[in-house]
């Protein structure tokens, strides 16, 4: 199931990058790491935040999620 990405950011409190156009709309789970996204702040732990929507989730209202680096963030209830 495709989702609509409103915004997605990967980075630190020092610097971050917009990763909204990294194919996230086709993912059910996002592996949050330096393999999926470029490293915007070398040597500093990063976080990922996303705002997205789907007509079948949350009555179509936007959903905001965040997680630390080196985790998988589940976006949908589809395996």
Stretches where pLDDT is under 50 for at least 5 consecutive residues are none
Order of helices and strands: EEEEEE
Task: Please summarize the sheet with the most strands.
Answer: 4 strands, antiparallel
Percentage of β-strand residues: 35-45%
Radius of gyration: 12 Å
Gap between N and C termini? 11 Å
Number of discrete helical segments: 0
pLDDT averaged residue by residue: 92
Q: Structural class of the secondary structure composition?
A: mainly beta
Quaternary state of the chains = single chain
Percent helix range: under 10%
Shape: elongated
Number of strands: 6
Strand order of the largest sheet: 2-1-4-5
Written description of the protein model:
The protein has no helices and six strands. The chain is an all-beta fold and 79 residues long. A hairpin with a 4-residue loop joins β1 and β2. The chain is elongated, with a radius of gyration of 12 Å.
Summarize the structure.
With 79 residues, this protein is an all-beta fold. The protein has strands at 4-11, 16-18, 29-32, 47-53, 63-68, 71-74.
